[in-house]
């Protein structure tokens, strides 16, 4: 007698997970796995992330808490870090990268929310070598009131992180009044540089001037070692702006810091700056770090938007 039992059915195929087909594609109607992508803002402790349109994240940025998502275009350039180098004698940890460099590129990241709303947000910068490899990632630490009440004159702390997500440099500026058109003693800006954190290696101080900006670079003993001279900024619109790095006796120029002109449309849309620093390869590594700090101070003093756009509309 034949059995009337139904024939065995094949088990259903195994799927990679909810919201995905067996080929790995998202199924319409399902949200799939939601992944936040970007580098977290260390300053606030909140999970704020950089826009994907401004920072292509790859697996070598995982040390910053970034996760690679399927939505990242396959053609996005990877974030490549500068390889570690032998540590020179008496070099603070994390500064050995600078010993091999005679050029530094500092690119401020575009902040999408700042461009849309007009409200100031914490600045973030990519510090690279001449080949475009990342050396540090710089993050400003601040609060919303200080950001939007005092604008470019605000006090700030900027930490520079290496490829292992360790802070190796800290830049700090206190608030000084800005009641005068030409900087006087009470309005002069000063930047303190620490490397590693907790160890002061020098200062960048603004000097009194009428038309052309003047700065002095000091070591940890507050001894003057270099000077920084800028042009009359009112005469250099729509072009690159060069700040000359001079010896303390001003007899020779040993390098320069250039603020790159991005074009009329980009300059009107955002105050994000791009800098190129050039100095001798054999310059002391601490002095290179101080000049790097001077680059950030120049950005805040001269190239940050003076009045937030949302204040102008009210």
Short description:
The chain is of the alpha+beta class and about 325 residues long.
The helix tally amounts to 5
Indicate the low-confidence ranges by residue numbers: 15-75, 309-314
**Order of adjacent strands in the largest pleated sheet:** 1-2-3-4-5-6-7-8-9-10-11-12
What is the β-strand count? 12
Quaternary state reads single chain
Large-scale geometry: globular
Describe the main β-sheet briefly. Answer: 12 strands, antiparallel, barrel
H-E string: EHEEHEEEEEEEEHEHH
Q: What structural category arises from helix and sheet content?
A: alpha+beta
Overall residue-averaged pLDDT value = 77
User: N-to-C terminal Cα separation, in Å?
Assistant: 92 Å
Q: Percentage of helical residues?
A: 10-25%
Rg computed from alpha carbons, rounded to a whole number of angstroms: 25 Å
Strand content: 15-25%
Function: May mediate accelerated ATP-independent bidirectional transbilayer migration of phospholipids upon binding calcium ions that results in a loss of phospholipid asymmetry in the plasma membrane.
Organism: Naja naja (Indian cobra)
Family: Belongs to the phospholipid scramblase family.
Keywords: Calcium, Lipoprotein, Membrane, Palmitate, Phosphoprotein, Transmembrane, Transmembrane helix
